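Quick one, T. Sequence first:
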Amino acid sequence: MKVIDINIPEVLNDLTLGQWQEITDLELNEGISGDFYMRRVLSIVYGIKDVRLEDLKKADVEIMMDSVRNILTQEPSFENRFTMEGVEYGFVPNLDNITFGEFTDLDEYSDRKDYHKMLSILYRPIIKKQTGGRYKIKRYRGSSDMSGMPLGIALGAVTFFLTIGLQLTSDILSSLTPEERQQWQKLTLEKSGVGMPQSIPSPREISSGSRISLN
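Structure tokens:
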């Protein structure tokens, strides 16, 4: 029997945001059977295709699935900096000072399927480090793809941002000119009512968007 080397993830940051999004997308497909669902999860997390899966022991498969289940019940924590592919990223230093463009894009990408875009607004490359742990980040020029970032950092930032999101929306809207407020309302309507969340999810709710996370 051919030996297959597999790295078992242990913590949230062992998975990527993109993998989590793929797993949560499976939850939306009610026609997926339990066996096919398991095969897809193993393919997403471990890169194991069906042909190789047949060579694995049942006990090993159960260990692999249990590992993913356990990971997705862990509570994420907020980190204001992280490094990915040699680039250090920093969370927006002051959310009170975000631009109208940043605000409208954050609103547009507040759905979990768009977290990879929303997080590219919240985290940007650090261009200058200052004393006391402070830093300056790259100016926002449009969203990018952050699906490769560590899952724990991603969910921690989402939890933090959505916790203050309602207050942030209220504060920013009150500071807008009538023209800017009208523009924001128009953009919101064009998105068929998709906007800042009306309820604040807990970290567990954010990080448990799939069948394997709690079952």
